[in-house]
Amino acid sequence: MSALFAGTFARGGAAAAVSDDGWFRALLDVEAALARAAAATGVVAATAADAVTAACADPSRLDLARVVAHAADAGNPVPPLVQVLREAVGPRDAVAVHVGATSQDVLDSALMLLARRAIGAIDADLTRAGELAAGLARAHRDDVVMGRTLMQQALATTFGLTAAGWLAGLDGARARLQAVDASLPVQYGGAVGTLAGTDGSGVDVRAALARELGLTATPLPWHTVRLPVADLAGALGATAGVVATAAVDIVLLAQAEVGEVAEASQERGGSSAMLHKNNPVAAISARACARRAPGLAATLLAAMEQEHERAAGAWHSEWPTMTELLGTVGSAASWLAESLASLRVDTARMEATVAAAGEPRLAQGSTEALTPSLGRAGAHEAVALAVREADLGGRPLADVLRDRGDVDMEGLLRAAGPDVGEAGAQVDAALAAHEKTNERKP
Length: 442
Known about the structure:
The protein is mainly alpha-helical. The protein folds into 2 domains: about 5-350, Fumarase C, Chain A, domain 2, CATH 1.20.200.10; about 350-420, Ribonucleotide Reductase Protein R1, domain 1 (Orthogonal Bundle). The protein is built from 18 helices and 4 strands. The strands form 2 sheets. A two-stranded antiparallel sheet has the order 1-2. Strands 3-4 form a two-stranded antiparallel sheet. A hairpin with a 2-residue loop joins strand 1 (about 145-150) and strand 2 (about 150-160). The protein is elongated and about 100 Å long. About 45% of the residues are buried.
């Protein structure tokens, strides 16, 4: 990531988790865990495994610059890393380095570790955003706002219900990511998946490696069955969609012509040319980060088609793509939390917009008034015709309906405030579900 754009697209804990340092940490953790797993199953001596663990724990002892320089020579960074590790521990203990493994075993297991660490950071930002959305839902449970469908004014709803919708999406995204996280598997199969390099102990080594890394063990290696990567891609892509939906709501509500919310920040929002502007930069940035996710997820899904026992190129394409996907989704979640934390809600402006939008209420009230005499379908059609006539003739809807003679127009115009149905009860239900989710979280 260019340093020029990292402030926007590499924000929050997930970006740090998938950095070069994060990748090296994951690769070294796998090699150290493999040495210990091999020792636990009697494949290598414990003293040799201890030497490998110590070397992996202190990256400053390793010539990682050489790994970077030669990572492309074998098509991946594991061969030069193994060479550097063997040199670091010496000939006697080198037997415990990379025991029975192929490069893909180490890279895939490291990718799962990297994903777990990034998901932890993403979850923290989603949790913060969810708590902020819950606070907005509570505070504005009954504050009316104009609902908008197909970008047009529809009927009144409440801002509490809008915020509760954001909350439900964020909680749902967290649940999906947590389910994927819990199922992340270790990879260990050796050169072509036969475990031939461990003298009959390969299955036990795989189980021990899974325990060491806190990953799940699978009956078979998944070298070309990329369901774990696809599951990650799907959950991350869905999370990006949830974040983007909340972000674009904020962007639209913050338009000067609408002015129902604003981001209140001393640091952000200015324009280089128009000093009067207060751009909702955090929401815009959340949307920008989330927009990158679908293409990255699509690349990972396209890479599922892999040939024979090791893919030639498709597997390789996953590493930078998943790295960027984890980073951009984490950045989006971090920005959304920032936007919600700085959100200023103008309930008076919302109420005024609803009050000024008489025609939606008038159409709804007229339909209800005509239903006893015309039936629900007939009333709907009669009012729809009146709306079209008003639009085509440039006349107020009230005048067109008044001409019918069978609608108490003056009574409808004097009617009480907007009907928001069961919005409040649904907000309460969403908040209760949110609290229950948090109670279950370990």
